[in-house]
Design a protein that fits this description.
Length: 332
């Protein structure tokens, strides 16, 4: 609970009310005692902290972006999916909140226990089906009478979202989702007890001109083994862990194979166009560097060393004399 800070005017008004008898100090004390009592509904147990709920929200924001890209390609029309809310509630309440006839995809989440439900609003589901069959995409929902062929088409469409879920969760845990069931009646899905706490992620979904909701229901038993990983504290610890020696060695080895350009610059000068046009064979161009001075050796056009010209065998070479201080700060 965050303490409220009163302004000076509020403090003065409070003191004035106490001194004039308009407000009783005992009443204030009693109100403060009453505030310490908080109503708790055991049927609606809150088993996830706000921090953990936010972490789940971030995972599914990434999922929404990936799903938008996937469905845009499959349906060949405008698709927009965005997280609308992330809530925790009893499983029974989730089942009551969705239509009596809808599209329900049940995914296993190996190696995690339990299953996750992806509920697709009938309007959205039929629009997807209509687009898959070559139609314009209407909102005439008829999920209660899907033919066998239509059921197969819808199942194949949602089977491919398993990889999207896997990628979205990869930053936290490695899972292998698999579409286990395709159902259109929520009453047949009794995966957990009615009072089991579930996290429901709701997405605002637009396909063409049709809008609706997609909901993902995640039971507590699925998330229980990875709850510590959902906290910001755990994620910060993970980010600050010592680097992986094997990965570090591999990156270092790859960097050693990178190509760099070394350039020894004898000197520079500036001339105008008129002088350039008059240049002829045998002309001399005076540079800005004396013959006794060292020349610059540049690494990818950044001055790094002072060197002197020499010869090794039949090759022209340079010998490094000293490193140029702050050479990384100014380009050639």
């Amino acid at each position: 609970m965050v303490d409220e800070v009163l302004s000076q005017n509020e403090i003065d008004a409070l003191l004035s009310a106490l001194s004039t008898g308009e407000m009783d100090a005992e009443e204030l004390k009693q109100e403060e005692e009453n505030k310490k009592v908080r109503v708790y509904d055991f049927k609606r147990a809150l088993r996830f902290s706000k921090d953990q709920i936010r972490s789940i929200g971030r995972i599914y924001e990434n999922y929404a972006r990936l799903l938008t890209t996937y469905l845009s390609g499959q349906l060949r029309t405008y698709v927009h999916i965005a997280v609308a809310s992330v809530d925790q509630l009893p499983y029974e309440e989730f089942i009551r909140s969705i239509p009596k006839m809808t599209i329900l995809n049940v995914f296993s989440m190996e190696p995690l226990d339990g299953k996750v439900i992806m509920e697709v609003n009938p309007n959205i589901a039929y629009t997807m089906l209509d687009r898959m069959l070559g139609g314009q995409g209407t909102d005439k929902a008829k999920v209660d009478s899907l033919t066998e062929i239509e059921t197969i088409i819808m199942t194949q469409l949602f089977e491919k979202t398993s990889n999207i879920m896997k990628e979205a969760w990869s930053s936290l845990v490695e899972i292998d989702p698999n579409l286990e069931e395709f159902e259109n009646n929520p009453q047949f899905l009794q995966m957990v007890s009615p009072n089991e706490t579930v996290v429901v992620v709701s997405f605002n979904t637009t396909i063409g001109d049709v809008s609706g909701m997609i909901n993902i229901c995640i039971p507590h038993m699925v998330l229980e083994p990875i709850i510590p990983k959902l906290s910001v504290h755990y994620q910060m610890q993970t980010e600050t862990k010592a680097r992986d020696p094997e990965a570090y060695a591999k990156i270092s080895e790859n960097l050693k194979q990178s190509t760099l350009e070394l350039k020894a610059v004898l000197g520079e000068t500036s001339i105008n166009i008129q002088q350039f046009l008059k240049l002829d064979t045998g002309d001399f161009i005076t540079l800005n560097r004396s013959i006794e001075e060292p020349i610059e050796l540049k690494l990818n056009d950044v001055s790094k060393f002072n060197v002197q010209i020499g010869k090794v065998g039949h090759h022209v070479s340079v010998q490094i004399l000293e490193e140029i201080e702050g050479g990384e700060e100014h380009d050639g």
